[in-house]
Amino acid sequence: MPIRYVGFPFPVAGQPKSVHRQYIEGNDVVSGKPMMTAIIDALTKPLTEEEKYSGPPPEAAPEPRFLKPDTAENLQRLFKEKDWTDYNPVILPTEEKVKEMLAGTSRKPDEIIKYLTWPGGKRPFTVEKAAICAVMAGAKPEYFPLILAVATQVPFGNSTSSMANMIVVNGPIRKELGMNYGGNALGPHNEVNAVIGRVFTLMSKTAGNLHHGKTTFSSLGSNLQYNNLCFAENEEGLPEGWEPLHVQMGFKPSDSVVTVGIGWTYISSVGEVQKAYPAHFLMRDYMRSLTAMMGGTVLMDPTVAALLKHDQGFQTKHMLSEWLADNVEKTVASFWGNGVVSTFFGSMAIQGLEPYASYLKMSGEKLIKPMTAEGIKIVVVGGGIQTTWFVTDFMLGRGVLVDEWR
Amino acid sequence: MVGLSLALTMPGCSPARPASIPKEEPGPQAKRAEVAHPEVPRITAQELKQLMDKKGEYILVDTRYSSSYDKGHIKGAVNIYYDTQGDPFPRKMMLRALPKDKLIILYCD
How far is B10 from chain A (nearest CA, A)? Predict the structure, then answer.
């Protein structure tokens, strides 16, 4: 049955009662009626014929596979008007180009990678649709297995809080495709890093149906969504005993794996490591400012990893994660001061989930250690040019085996 | 929910259907296909009771709608509604709060 709903203006979260009262005394943004009238009508008016429907939600209307032929200029304009792009020119996905892209995998074009149910409908996200986005982003067919693995994680972060994603690639696929995991790996200096990150955005907007003002309402938005922090780990630059990210997850070193994380923020070390104040001390200090939803991801140049191992004694990545978890402290007030944490962790704290239930009983000035060693991931990337690093609040998910999509 | 997670075996664990739709009897293939996330190991209610009696280390998650949870739930369970049609953001954020070093047991209707 179609749902009746009323809408309040944005923002709601964090607003004083006086603003909430104005919303209640104002008009419903959906119907334009006075809010209380709209609520009462929605609850009491008899159902229309359409509203009496009680079956399962209808499948989303099928999209036409082909657009009418037109000039390249008109088609570029159309793609922008439809919000199918990131507003940079795309490679137009002709039938021929999509067929070439599909040759990069043994999977069938109509194979369903996943169903996308938010926002609205039950939309099959097929291998062919991923191929269309891959062509648009400028990918080559040999990139396609990696793109399909990334496609399993579509769509990108979507929240009024302006989330973003991180894409980390491990294993032989890095060298096969010529990804950059050295100097400037996170910058706009490598075709593969650029294109893979871009495809994730295009897949999220098109197949993911995320369009500003209709289905996504990020308040500031995130510039990171142009490339989704796509890079490869510098596995060759790892100190002995420091395992690649995918090996830590249980994959074999010879597996090609992509891991997608979700978060908001990264803080740069800015300058090089100072002997008098080791890197992990400053990482700890900066991580205190992060959202602290159990952990985050630390990205560091191989030179920093070497210093942390040889000078500071962190024989493994996990030892560093443990030290950071044990030393990153925040006040209880600061922890609950973040709206996303208080909304989602707070509800479960009230239901008794520890340690959050205990945090609710503490005074605001009490210091807590809200991160866990398991939640803090360490990834080495960079060219050995400078002892710099980033701490981020990106929480990495489960790795996806690229090899299954060849 | 990386790592250890179990689903509590309960009959008819699927989204609630409106009363007006007659429930068709599915064939064997359809019955197998209806099991959500077959890769997740199952335990029985009796096995959970034994775990609870031994005061094992676990987190119990009620994946039903909040009104169902509010009406009654297994003692100690937290509510993370598994809404297959809704915005995944709330669920993703709440899942982040779960400890990664404990057994996570999910249950539904």
Answer: 23
At A138, the amino acid letter reads G
Closest residue, chain A, to B87 (C-alpha)? A118
Write down the pLDDT at residue A11: 86
CA atoms within 13 A on the CB side of B22: 2
| φ, ψ dihedrals at A330, nearest 5° | -135, 160
**Separation of CA A373 from chain center:** 21
Q: What ipTM was reported for this prediction?
A: 0.76
The neighbour count for residue B24, using CB atoms within 10 Å, is 7
Please choose, from the candidates A139, A125, A150, A261, the residue with its C-alpha nearest in 3D space to the C-alpha of residue A206.
A125
* Pairing relationship of beta strands A123-126 and A112-116 according to DSSP bridges: antiparallel
Q: Give me the residues paired with residue A27 across strands.
A: A34
For residue B30, pLDDT beyond 50: no
Helices (H), A82-211: 95-102, 127-137, 144-151, 173-177, 191-205
Q: How far is A344 from chain B (nearest CA, A)?
A: 5
Give the C-alpha separation, A233 to A270, whole Å. Answer: 20
Measured distance CA(A286)–CA(A279) in Å, rounded:
11
Closest CA to A199 of A228, A219, A222: A228
C-beta separation of A398 from B2 below 8 A: yes
Q: Which residue has the tokens 């657009």?
A: A67
Neighbouring CB atoms inside 10 A of A16's CB total 8
Token output for A253: 């070193």
What one-letter code names the amino acid at A253? P
What is the pTM assigned to this prediction?
0.86
A227: its two tokens:
């490339």
CB A378 within 8 A of CB A300: yes
Contact B84 A117 (CB under 8 A): yes
Instruction: Tokens for A6, please give them.
Output: 């009323």
Q: Considering only CA atoms, which of A218, A230, A89, A225 is closest in space to residue A150?
A: A230
Select from B86, B87, B93 the Cβ nearest to the Cβ of A340. Answer: B93
Token couple for A197: 């990150």
Q: Please enumerate in sequence order all residues whose Cβ is within 8 A of that of B44, keeping only pairs 6 or more positions apart, or say none.
A: B8, B9
Q: Which residues of chain A have pLDDT under 70?
A: 1-2, 56-63
Distance of alpha carbon B19 from alpha carbon B23, whole angstroms: 9
Nearest-Cα residue of chain B relative to residue A376 = B100
d(C-alpha B38, C-alpha A365), whole Å: 46
Q: What is the pLDDT of residues A332-353, one digit of tens each?
A: 999 999 988 998 899 899 999 9
